[in-house]
Amino acid sequence: MAERRTSRSKACPDYERNLVLYYYGDCADAEREKIISHLEVCNLCRDFLADLRLLLPLTVKTDEPGEEFWQSYSRDLRVKLA
């Protein structure tokens, strides 16, 4: 079973902001190459990037109400309209 980290990784201060841009693909080519080279030698930044890959997708997940919500909503709306 895969081990789940419970603590947040820290990146090198000079790279933290750029790692976020790198994750989103929003950094210039030269900066991207610099980050790739740095990631080859820096465990802190590799762990930080791994955390970004786990956590950032969770911030954009939509919260779709289930069928029970819509049935209740429909029932409540009909009561209010009556």
**Approximately how much helix is present in the residues?**
55-70%
Radius of gyration: 21 Å
Largest sheet: none
Cα distance spanning the termini:
55 Å
How many distinct beta strands?
A: 0
Low-pLDDT segments, ≥5 res: 1-7
Structural class: mainly alpha
Q: Quaternary arrangement of the chains shown?
A: single chain
Share of residues in strands: under 5%
Helix and strand run: HHHH
User: In one word, what is the shape?
Assistant: rod-shaped
The number of distinct helices, counting runs of at least 4 residues, comes to 4
- Average pLDDT, all residues: 85
Structure write-up:
- This protein is mainly α and 82 residues long.
- The chain has helices at residues 16-24, 29-41, 43-55, 67-81.
Highlighted features:
single chain, 82 residues, 61% helix, disordered N terminus
Itemize the secondary structure elements and their pairings:
Blueprint: H1 16-24, H2 29-41, H3 43-55, H4 67-81
Helix pairs in contact: 1-3
Summarize this entry quickly.
The chain contains four helices and no strands. It is mainly α.
